[in-house]
Specification:
Elements: E1 9-10, H1 13-26, E2 33-34, E3 38-39, E4 43-48, E5 53-57, H2 70-76, E6 83-86, H3 92-99, E7 104-108, H4 111-120, E8 125-127, H5 130-134, E9 140-145, H6 159-168, E10 170-181, H7 189-200, E11 207-214, E12 217-218, E13 222-225, H8 229-236, E14 241-247, E15 253-260
Parallel strand pairs: 1-12, 6-7, 6-9, 7-8, 9-10
Antiparallel strand pairs: 2-3, 4-5, 4-11, 10-15, 11-12, 11-13, 14-15
Helix pairs in contact: 1-4
């Protein structure tokens, strides 16, 4: 898709970024170079709709278990049965589970990320959204939303449909293990002001409006949710799921476990 002057071309930002991060880490494939000689750091750029721009090295998407955060280890220790890793990315979680003999499928909307996951050895991969996958006949016992992917709930409008799609994919006794972040511990006016602006617009305070950038590519603008545990409980209420447990040992990060009702 072509772009206006000064605007990024809409494309698979995450896929191109992960491909380059993998090339830098392994030497497999062409690497971005600075001045035509030195490897250029692969940086994920996150742009918020109030103009805030943040960047972070993309290499962590490839991290082996010894470099994970403690909550990731506690999350994978809770899985049972057949697992759907939602937002599989470069496959760091799925690879570990696969090596432990756990049946796991990785789901992502980035074709480029899925290619990297497959090259790294993840065997079962699906391209598409949760809603699209729910239209098939696959069923799972554990859903993983790690890497802060509780954010895929987006907000009050999207959460019921997202959770309903997970329920359609669930076997009896299924669980969701999700990593979230409570955004409200900050005193930074850049963030507290954004929270207040959101609330005035009828949105949850931590309902982010973002787009990702990498080199010449950008995504469309999308919502991504960071919310408190109380807000999560509100979003889950009335859905096929119940909030069964919250692990807050690594505040402001937390692991929320949802279990299927009935």
């Amino acid at each position: 898709m072509t772009s206006a002057i000064g605007e990024p071309t809409i494309g698979d930002v995450f896929g191109e970024m992960i491909r380059d991060a993998y090339a830098v880490a392994t030497g497999v494939g062409p690497r971005p170079l600075a001045g035509g000689r030195l490897p250029r750091p692969v940086i994920e750029i996150i742009e918020r709709d109030d103009g805030l721009v943040n960047g972070a090295p993309a290499g962590h998407y490839l991290d082996p278990p010894e470099h994970w955060q403690p909550h990731d280890h506690r999350a994978v220790a809770r899985v049972h049965g057949e697992v759907l890793d939602i937002g599989v990315g470069a496959g760091r979680i799925a690879l570990h589970l696969q090596e432990q003999g756990v049946p796991v499928t990785g789901l992502d909307i980035s074709a480029g990320a899925l290619r990297v996951s497959r090259h790294r050895g993840v065997r079962e991969l699906v391209y598409g959204t949760v809603d699209e996958h729910a239209a098939g006949d696959r069923r799972y016992d554990t859903f993983l939303l790690l890497g802060n992917n509780l954010g895929l709930l987006e907000g009050r409008e999207r959460a019921p449909a997202f959770l309903a799609a997970l329920a359609a994919l669930a076997r009896p006794g299924a669980q969701v293990i999700a990593h979230g972040t409570d955004p409200y511990g900050t005193t930074d006016p850049v963030h507290t002001g954004y929270h207040e602006r959101n609330r005035r617009r009828g949105r949850l305070g931590g309902q982010l409006r973002l787009r990702l950038r990498y080199r010449l590519l950008g995504t469309e603008w999308f919502d991504y949710l960071v919310c408190s545990v109380d807000e999560l409980a509100e979003l889950v209420h009335g859905t096929p799921w119940r909030l069964a447990d919250v692990d807050e040992h690594d505040r402001p990060y937390y692991l929320a476990t949802l279990t299927l009702r009935g």
